[in-house]
Each structure stands twice: as C-alpha cells, then as structure tokens.
Write a structure and sequence with these properties.
Layout (H helix, E strand, L loop, with lengths): L7 H9 L10 H7 L2 H5 L8
Helix pairs in contact: 1-2
C-alpha cells in the first residue's frame, strides 16, 4: 500500500471504481458502499 496523499479528484474517481475483473477493490470504493451488501442480503433478520 502506498502512503501517497489522495486528491479530491482521485478520491471521487476511486469511489466509482469497482475494479471489476480484478481480485480486489480500493479502500474508497469499499467505504463508499458502506454496509450495502448486508442491507441487501435476504438472510439478515430485521430487528424490531
């Protein structure tokens, strides 16, 4: 991992880049998605 500073323009691009066809994603994309996968998972129980 590089310790380079990320510019706002690069951050905006990274948030939209899912890196399809590769073995991973980038940190900005993962944080942008949040817990979307958990919310969309039909096996999760609603706590009411």
């Amino acid at each position: 991992m590089s310790d380079k500073k990320i510019t706002p323009q690069n951050n905006a691009a990274n948030m939209q880049n899912a890196n399809k066809g590769t073995s991973g994603t980038n940190k900005q994309y993962d944080q942008n998605q949040g817990n979307k996968g958990k919310q969309l998972n039909p096996n999760q129980q609603n706590k009411k």
